[in-house]
Amino acid sequence: MATPRKEKPAETPGYWPTSKMAELFELSARRIQQLTQDGILKTHDTPAGRRYNVGEATKDYIKYLRQQLDKKQGSQNNKLETDKLQAEVDIKNAKARVAELQLAELEGTMHRAEDVEAMTTDLVFTIRSALMAMPGRLAVDTAELETPAETSARIQEEVNEVLLSLSQYQYDPEEYKKRVKDRQGWASVEEIEDDVQTD
């Protein structure tokens, strides 16, 4: 003999399930559940299960929408406050950028124009010194030579030595780092890292 099927409890008039409330408010069922979790909408026990009272839920949802609208209008009225906060964010971003540039300078990955100028000036003085020393060195050597060709060859040798010396000039990032540290009174990157590790 077949077991009689249990009849589904009848829905209570004025109480709807999530799916029907979603249709009414033109929202997803998930959004209705979220509003319920947030305490905006309430469910009630009915013989058919947890359901929303349509009138109550509609009023609660309208109240929620009004509050959201007031927040939006309030935020427009507080434009000055928003601008102030934005200015604060901009200042913090600018300070962070300055700190990044200082770190790049300290690490030797960026150089100030004044440091490049100073290093270039040093190189120019090195070249000048080498050129100024040439006549003195060549005076004795060329006096002993008999022909203009020999004199020319000796001068060429001296010029080649100066050029060879200049060709061996290397960019030295450590020299830039040293200049930055001396100018700013900063600790080296290694000292900073040591301080961070010991903190």
Describe the structure concisely for a colleague.
The chain is built from 8 helices and 3 strands; from the N terminus they run E-H-H-E-E-H-H-H-H-H-H.
* Sheet with most strands: strand arrangement: 1-3-2
Beta fraction: 5-15%
* Structural class by SSE content: mainly alpha
Helix % is over 70%
What is Rg? 42 Å
Count of individual helical segments: 8
Mean pLDDT, all residues:
77
Shape: rod-shaped
* N- to C-terminal distance: 81 Å
Can you tell me the residue ranges where pLDDT is under 50 for at least 5 consecutive residues? none
The tally of beta strands, per DSSP, is 3
Main sheet makeup: 3 strands, antiparallel
Question: Layout of SSEs?
Answer:
Layout: E1 15-16, H1 18-25, H2 29-37, E2 44-46, E3 49-53, H3 54-77, H4 79-107, H5 113-143, H6 148-167, H7 173-184, H8 189-198
Helix pairs in contact: 1-2, 5-6
Any overview of this molecule?
It is a single chain. 72% of the residues lie in helices and 5% in strands. The chain has helices at residues 18-25, 29-37, 54-77, 79-107, 113-143, 148-167, 173-184, 189-198; strands at residues 15-16, 44-46, 49-53.
